[in-house]
Design goal:
The chain is α/β, with parallel strands linked by helices. It has two domains: 1-86 and 194-229, 3-Layer(aba) Sandwich (Rossmann fold); 89-163, no CATH class. It is 30% helix and 26% strand. The protein has six helices and ten strands; from the N terminus they run βββαββαβαααβαβββ. The strands form two sheets. Strands 6-7-8-3-9-10 form a six-stranded mixed β-sheet. A four-stranded antiparallel β-sheet has the order 2-1-4-5, covered by helices on one side.
Length: 229
């Protein structure tokens, strides 16, 4: 395993939910995500994995507790600072979320264009990201012409296109066959660098071979989430 390069995310007594009035989905959580390390969030459906990823991405604010990313308090980020943080995060969704009418490079380039990149630069970066994931022969293919594993590679390329320092993957093998799932496990592990952290939320036991830091989002008798590191 690549030695951790330093702190990325730090959560202490963290409570997160979608509606403060309805109470937190996650509460009392202490967890660290290190740069240069793969972190695996294991847990059954309803354990709060997606909720926690949303907080890490800056999409949900903590209800209680502390949540820091690269030394910044995510609960206080607003405006352009919050937008800049969100742009530093690449997200791989469970269901790919590719646009059927766009080809592979267009799907990868779209977030860059929305972030203000010029068309030629966005296309060049999209092609580069696809090529790095062995998708060089599929730039012009729309999602309907791609296998599940290939669609996942396009989704990962899209997450990598902005050179994020944090990659979050939510159940990335949920819709893949055994061969494609094993390939995705290996691929996500390879994304870890000395300047990047990768967090995968999963209940797939195939990730047990990915050589990462395991966070088990179990549930205590009092209903609070308990991370087992």
């Amino acid at each position: 395993m690549t030695p951790p390069a330093g702190p990325g995310i730090r959560a202490r007594s963290l409570a997160v939910g979608y509606d403060a009035a309805e109470g937190p989905v996650i509460s009392g959580l202490d967890v660290d995500v290190a740069v240069g390390e793969l972190t695996l969030l294991f847990g059954a459906s309803g354990s709060g994995k997606t909720t926690l990823l949303s907080a890490f991405a800056g999409l949900l604010r903590p209800i209680e507790g502390e949540l820091e990313a690269w030394g910044e308090d995510l609960s206080t980020l607003k405006g352009s600072a919050l937008l800049d943080y969100r742009r530093s995060v690449g997200i791989v969704f469970q269901s790919f979320h590719l646009i059927a009418s766009l080809n592979a490079w267009e799907n990868v380039a779209l977030p860059l264009r929305l972030a203000g990149w010029k068309p030629a630069s966005a296309r060049a970066r999209a092609v580069e990201a696809l090529d790095s994931l062995a998708m060089g022969g599929h730039h012009d293919h729309r999602p309907g012409r791609l296998s599940g594993g290939q669609r996942q590679r396009v989704a990962i390329a899209r997450a990598l296109a902005s050179t994020p320092r944090l990659v979050l993957a939510d159940e990335p093998t949920a819709h893949l066959d055994a061969v494609s799932a094993a390939d995705t496990v290996s691929l996500l592990r390879s994304l870890v660098t000395s300047e990047r952290a990768v967090v995968v939320a999963t209940h797939d036991p195939r990730f047990a071979v990915a050589d990462g830091r395991v966070v088990d989002l179990g549930v205590r008798l009092d209903g609070a989430n308990q991370a087992t590191l």
